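Lecture 7 notes: from sequence to structure.

We start with a single chain of 136 residues. Read the sequence below before looking at the structure.
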Amino acid sequence: MGDRVFMKSVILLSHGSQSQASQAEVAELARKIAREGSFAYVQYAYLGSAEPLFLDAVGQLVQRGALEIVVLLHFLNSGNHVAEDVPALLAAAERQHPAVKFLSTQPAGLHPALPALCFDLIQNAQPFSGGSHAQT
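Now the structure, written as tokens:
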């Protein structure tokens, strides 16, 4: 383990979906964050409908030696999950692991770079047909 335990670990927290495509997208984003960042560990987790659930992911990171966990909210806005569910889960995680420091990001919709991202998405819009987006 070495010095990695003193670096930040990340949990990419998403709503959760039974869709295999959605789960694959979340897993791929976590892999990219791990590859491009300098974090001790990066794990994805869900509020429900898919696994691992948030508290299970926290337990996995703590078992690996994580002492500081940043919860990266994979939510666009401050809806009920962000305002109620996430704080309740963070409080439970703090009770279960009092030696671990927990941090949380804001939802992505509050980030100042979001309008630029939206502009890029608009500029690169793809045809929509047959009930799904064309993949490029």
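Residues 1-5 have pLDDT under 50 and may be disordered. Keep this in mind for problem set 3.
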